[in-house]
Predict the structure of Glycerate kinase.
Amino acid sequence: MKVVVASDSFKGSMSSFEVGQAVKKGILQFDPDVDVDIAGIADGGDGSMDVIRHAGLDAEEIKFKTTDLMGWPLDSVYLMTKYKKAPMAIIETANTVGINLIYKPTSTTFEEATSFGVGTQIRDAIKKGAKRVIVLTGGTGVSDGGLGMLQALGVNFFDQNNHILGRDQNLLNTDFQRIDSLGDVVSQFSHIDIMIATDVDNHYAGINGAQGVFRPQKGGTPEQIKKFDQKMQYFQEIVDNELDFNLSVVDGAGAAGGIGGALAVIGGRVVSGFDVIARLINLRQRMESADLVITGEGRLDFQSHHGKAPYRVAEVAREMDIPVFAIGGQIDASLHHFEKMDVPFFSIQRGPISRKQAMNPKTALGNITCLIRNLMRLWKM
């Protein structure tokens, strides 16, 4: 018997691979002869690069000195591999501007955080010959519309006195009036295939934009949100006038605080983060001979069907007619999308404990192992 474990991370507690190991332990406690394949999975958010590395992709880890979202020196990494014999870079935005790099998001960090560091990585990858760049978005602590990233790539921003604005600030928190070199940067990237891997479909600005949707987790106040959203709408107008490109209709442009939209401006195309990673780790091929698939993530809720890894894994399993069930650290009251697919889902909790206790890795790993051991008994009855 073969079981494929394709779980996302339990954010703030366990990585995808650690979850997989706990599931494997529970399976082998039930039957030590089961073939367990840990196919860590992600949807483009934080932890995606670790999933790719564990999959054994033939890639070189490029160590790169840059700055984090608050402008502090940072030793970051990205991957270089090959696609159709041409160099390809894989960059995870959370490695450089992740919300985990801030002790606690506040209104101050919200107005100061910049995506400049992401741009320096992209620029370095291009210098090293990359013809395709996959940017894994998600888990970021920035809300600067990706303008800092564009600045690092060569776009200049000017204030009302025609003074060029420095790189050590969130440009949405300035009174920038005009930009130049945008067309030149777009031309420079015309021969580069940029893939914006995301699990969200939010627009750049407006009601469904990056500011309003993701503000609560990044520390912004309502006043800051209004101001930043207006500046992003102003940037959309500049882009429309200079490039005849309507950024406002691009689904996924709101990814990573607007980094998705900034990448779209220079020719990037939005793709499913799950699909990209599933191809890189050969998920379908690994599932072909499986008798059972186990998936999950830290919180299974109404967002799980919006491109999230567990839902997509379940879809693939159902397409291949393979039994599948999902586990989570927290389960929402209604998961009708899983129910429509006849996918059973289970909480790993064994009793009433605090959130802090539940997210303790030792506790969570033990809970997963216990649950899986008993689910295997039930499944084999």
About this structure: Residues 222-243 form the longest helix (22 residues).
